Amino acid sequence: MSRRAFLLATGAVAGSAVLSACGSKGGDSAAPSGEVEVFSWWTEGAENAGLQALLADLQLNQPNITFVNRAVAGGAGGNAKAELAKRLDANNPPDSFQGHAGAELSDYIRAGKLEDLNALYDEQKWTDVFPEQLLPLISSDGKFYSVPVNIHRANMLWSNPKVLRAAGADPAPKTFEAFLGNLQKVKRAGGTVPLVVADSWTLKHLLETVMLATLGDQAWTALWSKGADWSAPEVRQALENFHQVLTYTNASSPAASWDEATTMVGSGKAAYQVMGDWAEGSFKVTQNLQTHTDYTWAPVPGTAGMFQFLSDSFTLPKGAKHRDAALAWLRECGSKTGQLGFNGAKGSIPTLTNLNSEDRALFGQYLKWSMDEWKRCRIVGSLAHGVVANNAWSTAIDGALDTFVKSRQVPPFQGALVAAARQHAV
Ligand code: GAL
């Protein structure tokens, strides 16, 4: 089967362009065989479709490798990371595991859990093709520790145009204030959840986008440095805005998971959802809906021109039992054919800067737009997906947020965030 036929057959990509250039898989002439056990949290329909597209390409390139899928269900990896921590503590690592580029990966590096991948980076010449913004987030002291497979955008607003039209509301309000006005219209119209939320990390995801909308990109980024002023009035305003927006959500009886919430938007039970662009994978691949007719998107109001990003990457843990097979898997993660199939299905963009117009033509409308946005927007990191805060800091914020969602008291919430920054910023 040709590469193009393969990519189209997996349903991983859209469009009709011929895929001319293959990814370089160089240096794997030794053809490893046997199992490779890989840990991730990709179990939702489009997440799994992305993973399967990557695996199908791995199968073409490395037919002697058997992929052992150790995916643990639970959006944003909460459950997976807890299980992984137990295995790392017991010195029984999988052969490779998913980790977000940025502070989350730094935790694993600092704990001495990962092998450096410089030899692989040299072999594959990845520093020539991975985006320069990403390289510092997967490296430490000049050594690379993971292979990024995608770039996702967190600050996205997804909506159901039919529901909004019926309520006289706008799918793309420009400012936060306009967003509140539109939420009010949907609430008044009745019958739907204005802004749907799910389990606790989705509230943290909403919080980070409201903070970005209120503070702007520079002040948001500055918050994650040691000594930053979390007691500032601007932070207070951001938390007040979050407080207001929460009143339009189903936070008191949330959906079970991010994808159940996305399905509520698709089916018209909810009007808006703030979610990363894996939601596009759910609308298109899992729910089989039509862009702009059944669902549509815009940057979270007040964040146009900003791209709050995250990147999934895969590692080589020290003590991996099938090291050669793990290296072959990592080559696949960084390859062009692997990334084209994977990202088209999952709803993310490749980490490769050497895509040509034929590669680009394989992607749907949202992802083409997202590729352009990545180039023209100001890039900032995500909190809920591991870029800006280490695990201890992030967990302290979870605690503060949990209490706030119950109490709805902004001053103690801000106080807890000030304390968390003081204790955990590095
Ligand atoms: C993010 C992850 C994405 C997506 C999402 C929902 O943390 O980076 O790839 O899977 O969680 O599970």
TrEMBL record:
SUPFAM superfamilies: Periplasmic binding protein-like II
Top-level lineage group: Bacteria
Keywords: Signal, Transport
Gene Ontology CC, one term: cell envelope
Compartment(s) where it occurs, according to its Swiss-Prot or TrEMBL record: Cell envelope
Functional summary from the UniProt entry: Part of a binding-protein-dependent transport system for a sugar.
Similarity section: Belongs to the bacterial solute-binding protein 1 family.
Protein name: Probable sugar-binding periplasmic protein
